[in-house]
Amino acid sequence: NAETYNILGSIEGKNGDYTKARDYFLQANKLDPYNISIAENLVQAYLALKDFDNARKLINSFDFNITTLK
Asked: Which of 4, 13, 42, 69 is most buried by a 10 A CB count?
């Protein structure tokens, strides 16, 4: 499930493997695209990888409608 992928991504990020972390966060985001915590983690992984374009795209895609945030 999405939370499992999010946890795995967090573990990989803490271990310094931001590529694996990004991949786990991408899977989590596909399963739960309205989970702001997952999206934030994915942005952090993009930034750690200096992938500023994808970080910016994801930030710009956020729907800040309070009713959709978890």
From this structure: 42
> What 3-state class would DSSP assign to 70?
coil
| Residue of 33, 19, 23, 28 whose CA lies nearest to 61 | 33
45 contacts 16 by C-beta, under 8 angstroms: no
With CA atoms as reference, report the closest residue to 26 among 12, 67, 70. 12
% of the chain with per-residue pLDDT over 70: 89
Taking the C-alpha atoms of residue 34 and residue 58, their distance in angstroms, rounded to an integer, is 12
pTM of the model: 0.87
Maximum CA extent, the chain: 34
- Copy the structure tokens of residue 11: 């573990």
